[in-house]
């Protein structure tokens, strides 16, 4: 037994409880990805200048939006449906569902490409508006990248549902920065010129490679023998309208997360925006741990969709784990605020107030657990969309009201996050109570 433990990957972690061990490996994987992404920015700046960083940032922003648009909620559906079908031992339906998702994404990608290219030509014809070569390359790169990213997300979510979250998160987050770092090495060696086409081609290659590797890992996982079918009656069939709300929620979630940086260029100075962006990035690095928890608990919520007792216990588990993970790291951020400010060439004390405000919002996020994930995975997608709609509108008003002071903007962002999560938590409790009334004989003992 000792020999087996010594030969296992990450041997020092195996004495830990299984869930914490897996969470630790996921955190290491995600942390490595964040470090590599920062490394890409440093390397790109060194070999191709700040314009290259800006080009890839714009490319990624528009690719994320476009991928969410053509993804049509398929990634969320893949997570939920794959978990339910795997529990039932129905591998044939998993494969058929993934092929259907891929066809739908490809079809919507063609529609988007036709609409964008037709719009470009119409603007050129009506107003004589000419696009530069870099702008044309960027448009084409986004149209190529969006279906690759959307398809990769579907395969990654299916892998998470098949109990392979480590491979899913590692491939989803590490492949693109690895390809871009390799490209930077080629640029530094003078083997390639640092043109927009080369840089965007590297990004497309990274996304395509990630999607292919995710699909290969998924095929391998689906080739394993199925486990004995579990309890089929706790999962609830997907209703026809739910995928629409998966889609709308995904689009609105991007707007909610990016809202400050969509508004602030019009109402704040670049220095203030930069200070907030640094604080926002630091807090988000900590809260990516909640994304890892969602990868572990999303399938479990889907499988317990008609079991009120199980959902109640799972929600409490996520509240406890979220606080245990987030609170100590947030405290470390507070203590390291001045050294971090100096690291980013900011004056001392310029980050503390922003980190404090944003951190309070994220502590509320942690304290309410994965309420939104529970709603989405267990039949409450409409409720989650309505909550996000209200929260986005409230955040917009709060940010506009406090725009004259960047600390007030940070407090407004935190208030929006807190409002969203408190509403989601209340809705999750209401949703669980409704499930208990609808399925009283299926409720497990609390």
Question: Your description of this structure?
Answer:
By secondary structure, this protein is mostly helical. It has two domains: 17-232, no CATH class; 239-440, no CATH class. It contains 16 helices and no strands. It has helices at residues 2-7, 18-48, 50-71, 74-87, 91-127, 133-161, 165-188, 196-222, 242-267, 270-303, 308-335, 337-343, 352-367, 371-377, 381-401, 406-438. α4 (74-87) packs parallel to α6 (133-161) and α7 packs antiparallel against α8. The protein is globular and about 65 Å long.
Q: What is the helix/strand order? A: HHHHHHHHHHHHHHHH
Radius of gyration: 23 Å
What portion of the residues fall into strands of 2 or more residues?
under 5%
Mean pLDDT: 78
Helix content: over 70%
Low-confidence stretches: 1-16, 228-235
State the total count of DSSP E strands.
Answer: 0
Helical segment tally? 16
Q: How would you summarize this macromolecular structure in one to three sentences?
A:
By secondary structure, the chain is mostly helical. Helices cover 81% and strands 0% of the residues. The chain has two domains: 17-232, no CATH class; 239-440, no CATH class.
Topology:
Blueprint: H1 2-7, H2 18-48, H3 50-71, H4 74-87, H5 91-127, H6 133-161, H7 165-188, H8 196-222, H9 242-267, H10 270-303, H11 308-335, H12 337-343, H13 352-367, H14 371-377, H15 381-401, H16 406-438
